[in-house]
Amino acid sequence: MDESEKLSRSETIRLREKFIAPSCKLFFKADPLKIVSAKGQYMFNEKGDKYLDCINNVTHVGHSHPKIAEVAFKQLKTLNTNSRFLHDNLVLYAERLTNLLPPPLCVCFFVNSGSEANDLALRLARTHTKRKEVIVLDHAYHGHVISLIDVSPYKFDHPGGEGKPDWVHVAPVPDVYGGQYRDDKHSAEELVQLYSDEVQKLIDLSAANGKGISCFIAESLQSCGGQIILPPDYLRRVYKSVREAGGVCIADEVQVGFGRVGTHWWAFQLQGEDVIPDIVTLGKPMGNGHPIAAVITTKEIADSFAATGMEYFNTYGGNPVSCAIGNAVLDIIEEEKLRENAIVVGNHLLSGLKELKEKHSIIGDVRGVGMFIGIDLVKDRVTREPATVEAQHIITRLKQQLILFSADGPNRNVLKFKPPMVLSLNDADYLLRTLDSILHEIKETN
């Protein structure tokens, strides 16, 4: 037994089944992994097997980073308290974070998770606009609290969901490969127009009903919906329409922020320097696994929220330890040039995957930017019928080859690549070779 392992794997499984709610999801449920340690982009099970982690977009700068452990330990030894006391870590981190965002995004609220951040963003939007109705993208997931299940088709349209509330309007996700409008039928210009027109229709519908839109919320790159890269100019058009209707625009960067796209700090910036949301939500990678998240907005919206007279307080949000860790994450991204690494490794992997696409007809589409890539698997390239069963098989085979991957999208046929940002070129080459071998196996058995 590994020295860091307190229980046998079978005993861990037994206790989990006894004490942990059955709805709490496990990766690889039929044969779950017991991970006892991790370093950088690698995770180790109780046997010492070394897995390449292509799943964890939370441990952004790598598992068990020594600088994060050091600053957390140092601050814990000194002070950890709530943000109703003055503390330098809070204000210095807020200043540094807002300096990474374009004006007028300059006011911070610190919370503990992406779900808390998106819940607060909805409150800010409703308070500022004095409206409730929301436009979301189909297949979107924004968090696990009630308010966010209500705006997450990924949840309310699936088992256990109750369908969308009447105040929620669902626009088709601008998936130009497998969505409502596809690139085999329309030009790039037509696709942007068609998808943005769908949002305008919902704005008009809400206005005709005498309600009016409070906000449009969307991930800057849609993850759970199948690693969707928004077509150029889409957010520019949609944001303009929403604002003209008196609504505000929320960019959910919980999964895709902090330089994952490489070329920019934030994924919404891929749409153009003039495309600026009114509210940005941050989470997951922000603390490299430590629970810290944030909402960043304009002074105007923050003032509207304050004008209600209701104070906002979050017990742990912005505590000294969380802010010290958040600041260390920014240091590491810059010192270790992880944005640059995302560009180099991401481009290398995209190029290699496109070569695999030429060899294997099961790969219908390869899309991505930086260390955010989707491999869309299909049974037929003409019909683009999803290869769901094959995707699950590939994930199982990758695990057997010590590579951890997941699949998502409405048909669970899109392989998702969203690893720690320290993944190397050698790792990318190993992944490409292994995937090529597995795809050859599939060919031979068909």
Topology:
Layout (H helix, E strand, L loop, with lengths): L8 H11 L15 E5 L2 E4 L4 E4 L12 H13 L9 H12 L7 E5 L2 H16 L3 E5 L8 H4 L3 H4 L11 E4 L16 H21 L4 E7 L14 H11 L3 E5 L26 E4 L10 E5 L1 H8 L13 H16 L2 H22 L3 E7 L2 E9 L4 E2 L1 H13 L2 E2 L1 E3 L5 E4 L7 H21 L1
Parallel strand pairs: 3-14, 5-6, 5-7, 7-8, 8-9
Antiparallel strand pairs: 1-2, 2-3, 4-10, 9-10, 11-12, 12-13, 12-16, 15-16
Helix pairs in contact: 2-10, 3-10, 4-9, 7-8, 11-13, 12-13
Features:
alpha/beta, 446 residues, 7-stranded mixed beta sheet, 5-stranded antiparallel beta sheet
Account of the 3D structure:
The protein is α/β, with parallel strands linked by helices and 446 residues long. It has helices at residues 9-19, 66-78, 88-99, 114-129, 146-149, 153-156, 188-208, 234-244, 299-306, 320-335, 338-359, 388-400, 425-445; strands at residues 35-39, 42-45, 50-53, 107-111, 133-137, 168-171, 213-219, 248-252, 279-282, 293-297, 363-369, 372-380, 385-386, 403-404, 406-408, 414-417. A seven-stranded mixed sheet has the order 4-10-9-8-7-5-6, with helices on both faces. Strand 15 (406-408) and strand 16 form a beta hairpin. Helix 12 (388-400) packs across helix 13. The protein starts with 8 loop residues before the first helix and ends with a helix.
Low-confidence stretches: none
Strand order of the largest sheet: 4-10-9-8-7-5-6
- CA-based gyration radius: 22 Å
Question: N-to-C terminal Cα separation, in Å?
Answer: 41 Å
Structural class: alpha/beta
Shape descriptor: globular
Count of individual helical segments: 13
Listing every helix as H and every strand as E from the N terminus to the C terminus, the arrangement reads HEEEHHEHEHHEHEHEEEHHHEEEHEEEH
Strand content: 15-25%
What is the mean pLDDT? 95
